[in-house]
């Protein structure tokens, strides 16, 4: 699969002209085609946002920018499923494209092992182990605690289909949803060295999270759910690491 066979989609608000110029200039420099996905700025919560469960679990609500971000990624997944393409590269518009971006995307397309999502930036990941090596020398890793954000990733159509089916209801920020691998079962990996840099230092942020003020009872409930998620995360990571060791042993 050649690099131009993987469509690249950049999520961007129509009015964010500075961001659009910034990302367009970068793609022109590397000679790689892409298209914009016009993100929607929500003015109210949509019907598929589960306010009751979100409040019970987190003691706060997602802000409308987070909901809009979730919606953009979800609709791109829907488009990928309908397109019949094998995989797409999805970027947000506040990234700096690093050296080796094109070669890494091309190598991901030819990866000799299955994956659902391959992050192009591994910032924030913890307790990782090597899964494989791509043809360009990039190291592919899995993590007990997955990297932050959804700045850029390659997603397989099968993974998009799973997420479209299981994530119709909005409950978590989109990066949190992707990282809940013990629930949806999508194999989520990352490449190193990273080929993207999140440049919210230049572009600012369109998300604007505000620290929630919680009652003691809300804090206790949140700690309970976070502890449960942490346990599930660790158990699922242990299983994945065990499977990786067994596969490595069978090849040796």
UniProtKB/TrEMBL annotation:
Transmembrane segments: none annotated. Pfam families: Glyco_transf_25. The keyword Repeat does not apply. GO terms for biological process: lipopolysaccharide biosynthetic process. Residues 7-178 form the Glycosyl transferase family domain. Keywords: Lipopolysaccharide biosynthesis. Signal peptide: none annotated. Pathway: Glycan metabolism; lacto-N-neotetraose biosynthesis; Bacterial outer membrane biogenesis; lipooligosaccharide biosynthesis. This is Glycosyltransferase family 25 protein. It comes from Herbaspirillum huttiense subsp. nephrolepidis.
């Amino acid at each position: 699969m050649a690099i131009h066979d993987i469509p690249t989609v950049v999520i961007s608000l129509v009015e964010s002209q500075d961001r659009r110029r910034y990302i367009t200039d970068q793609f022109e420099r590397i000679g790689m085609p892409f298209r914009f996905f016009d993100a929607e700025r929500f003015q109210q919560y949509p019907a598929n946002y589960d306010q009751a469960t979100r409040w019970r679990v987190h003691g706060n609500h997602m802000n409308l920018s987070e909901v809009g971000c979730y919606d953009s990624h979800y609709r791109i997944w829907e488009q990928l499923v309908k397109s019949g393409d094998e995989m797409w590269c999805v970027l947000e518009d506040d990234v700096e494209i690093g050296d080796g971006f094109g070669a890494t995307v091309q190598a991901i397309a030819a990866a000799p092992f299955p994956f659902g999502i391959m992050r192009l930036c591994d910032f924030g990941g913890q307790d990782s182990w090597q899964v494989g090596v791509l043809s360009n020398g990039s190291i592919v890793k899995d993590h007990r605690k997955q990297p932050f954000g959804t700045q850029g990733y390659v997603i397989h159509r099968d993974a998009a289909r799973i997420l479209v089916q299981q994530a119709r209801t909005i409950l978590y920020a989109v990066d949190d949803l992707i990282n809940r691998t013990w629930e949806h079962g999508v194999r989520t990996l990352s490449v190193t060295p990273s080929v993207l840099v999140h440049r919210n230092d230049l572009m600012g942020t369109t998300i604007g999270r505000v620290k929630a003020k919680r009652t003691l009872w809300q804090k206790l409930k949140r700690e309970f759910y976070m502890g449960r998620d942490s346990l599930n995360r660790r158990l699922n990571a242990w299983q994945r690491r065990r499977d990786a060791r067994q596969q490595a042993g069978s090849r040796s």
